[in-house]
Design a protein that fits this description.
alpha/beta; Alkaline Phosphatase, subunit A; about 30% helix; globular; nine-stranded mixed beta sheet; about 575 residues; Arylsulfatase, C-terminal domain; four-stranded antiparallel beta sheet; 2 domains
Length: about 575
Amino acid sequence: MTRLLVLVSIFGMSLLPAVAESAGPSPGRPNILLILGDDIGYSDLGCYGGEILTPTLDRLAAEGLRFTQFYNSSRCCPSRASLLTGLYPTQAGIGHFVGRDTGKPGYVGRLADRSVTLAEVAKSAGYSTYAVGKWHVNNPPPTQQGFDEFYGFVHGYAVDSWNPKMMVRLPEGRPTRTYKPGEYYATHAITDYALDFLNEARSQKKPWFMYMAYQAGHFPVQAPPEVTRTYLDTYRKGWDVLRAVRLERMKRLGLIADSVSLPPRSPIDLVQVARRLGSMTADGHNPPWDSLNADRREDLAHRMAVYAAMVQTMDTNIGRVVDSLREHGELDNTLILFISDNGACAEWEPFGFDLNPADYANNPPGHGINGGTPGKPNILHTGESLKTMGGPGSLFSYGSAWANLSNTPLWLYKHYAHEGGIHTPMIAHWPAGIHDRGAIRSHLGHLMDVMATLVDLTGATYPTTHQGHDILPMEGRSLRLAFENEPEQPRLLIFEHERNAALRQGPWKIVAQHIVGREGLRPGVSWELYNIADDPTEQHNLAEERPEMVKRMSDLFVEQARRTLILPKP
């Protein structure tokens, strides 16, 4: 079986078995299962060209659709705010981060009163609503924003996956599971409760909406050691070899044009590194794998092996849910969407960092880490220490060079508005509604489209007011047209996070780092211009050749930035 899965990863979807049919089509509105991965790079999944074994998601892609022009909002909580509300993150109130109210409408650090959640809207159509995993959009908690049941962590951006005390069950007083010492692992537990909630939904005989927001593969990367060991030889090859292999695999899968070349290694996140180390390489980019000594390479191979095992374990658990749907005859009329919240995480430098255990030690239930000491860079694990990496008490990240691999062949990472930060894999599976199975869609999409899709497919009512507050209109578009492969309509998308910004219109994109100031665009900072259809890796800046287009799109960015609360209105 292992050799078969490896062949699938290498040669694409042709060897994948069809997802078993459910008992038959279920007439009427679909159930909706929305799965969100955390910090998973564009090409990590097997069906997107990665060497990580993801047979469940690969099978869903083989029986559904893969999108190649789907976008997120560059970081965990802005993306979640946009996904949950169908708005741009600034319109939803979380343009930067939770809990940090800047006094500006787009950056209040919580979901704004001018928004409603997917669950609140689904309820208008008579759906039961459930959520598991990572919330990360601040108070009120999920069960006060439309969800009937919840298990996961409400506050913070990360948890120790081996520590059950970091999770909470809501509403208070609901039955909870118990785990034997050493048995608990967060991804397993999140799925256990998802299956419990599905059983509850079946007893109610109502359609349901479930939001499964896994913490995999956010740091600290942690995974069962028996899975980690299977990846060590793969990652001992290093990121340079594997980036080239991924690109060729993506070409064979039809995900990217044969003409695309592998770009140079992406720059290190120099703003963050400067605070700790200064630049680690002469050119400021991630170093060549072969330039590192043997001990450092072994440490890094273990870091990436744990990350890969974490993603594979998530896929295994998604398989448990898919199996349950199949067994109960629900798979055919359940829309399953899989998305990542942002590009791969480069925090903060090529060798990764190890976290301070005190930041995770005594948090109350439902509270992951949310700030605190960012960790010690450059720790080198050797000898016996290597054997414990990813297990209980082990808290680390995998670093910017592996993140560069995860985003192959895209430029930069999470936090940025370049493609490596905002470009996400997206899989849609719905046998009753998607008939062009195994196809690839290049329709321009954004995770805020999930709201419009839910309204379209369920017959839900999107409100104009809610609890005495005026609600902004949806920004997204229903994915139904993409499911049916209807011609794509012209579209404009705007991005901003940590003053990094972009505007996408058709194939054209302007993008820059640190270009947005408090009241407008910062003087002296130049936009880059790319034709993404021809140059998806953003290596050929056309700004000097097309100054009139840069000016037009820059003016359009400011107009849209004021409309979407990135910038104050004049």
